[in-house]
Amino acid sequence: MSDASGPRKQINSFDVARLAGVSRSAVSRTFTDGASVSKETRDKVMEAARRLGYRVNVLARSLHKQKSDLVGVVAADLDNPFRAEQIDLLTQGLLELGFRPILLRGEPSADVADLIGSLLQYSVAGVIVTSDTPPEEICQECLQNGVPLVVVNKRDPGAPVDRVVTDFEAGGRMALEHLLDCGCTRLAVVTPERSSYSINGRALAFEQAANAKGVSVIRIAWGTQSYEGGLAAAGFVHRVRSEIDGIFCTADYLALGVLDGLRHVHGLKVPRDIQVIGYDDIPQASWKAYDLTTVAQSRRDLCEATLDLLIQRLEEPETPPQIRTCGVTLVQRGTTLGS
């Protein structure tokens, strides 16, 4: 009698990760000689693999080893504490997986397509982009060369590549609702003049959530996404002080400058005179000098998702492109009046 259930589904590392309750990159580290993994994680992975009957895809690994063990990371704004910690976690994770990261700075004057093109000349095993969205043409070139490309917190490049994004729409709504709950009625959003996909998305989400509640928002697009940009924006906030009692800064780095400008240059009391909320939860946000209320996105979650997608693409190159969305949480501190 034939088996009506059909052929058995091939078990892959994602199945093992799900059963073990760990990331896919943790599974890969477990089966990579010399990679760093805790005994507890290794035991969980091995038990899940035993229960599922998982075997490492030797063919996929042998094909991967025909390439170099280099992975390119294209990043910008490395003076931003959030970005610096993100890149540190990414490169450390790559090393633990047995790769050697190459970091290229994708600053505004640099062409991200040229940077990725230079990485392809080294037969890299994969590319991770956290700077500007790469053009469709260079994405297609990566696909044609069998090089996995993971784009982090950037818009859809128009090519079937893997993406990791944080839920900035939820973050914008969260910031708006918190300021309203704290009694604010005259709102502003401070954002850099040249906004990235995710930064602009945060501002738009805040404005759209406010519009849905019939609350007007002043957009203050000022300077760069930096402490200095926030310090300069504080001057404009002071000039229209009577029109604003609550501010959403689209990045903590901006918010630190806004806070110092309002307090130390213009003599305002935060949160008594004006309330401020940021976004990112960089380490400095918790310093007593700032004690900044913020919307937190987890650098570790972003990096785990990025490495998981990279490993999946190396092991299963025919898998349809994926978008991983990482959640956000509100961290209430002393720059807002909520209880």
TrEMBL record:
Domain HTH lacI-type: 15-65
Transmembrane parts of this sequence: none
The protein, known as: LacI family transcriptional regulator
GO function term, MF aspect, one: transcription cis-regulatory region binding
SUPFAM superfamilies membership: lambda repressor-like DNA-binding domains, Periplasmic binding protein-like I
Pfam family, one: Peripla_BP_3
InterPro entries: HTH_LacI, LacI/GalR-like_sensor, Lambda_DNA-bd_dom_sf, Peripla_BP_I
Organism: Roseibium marinum
Keyword list, A-Z: DNA-binding, Repressor, Transcription, Transcription regulation
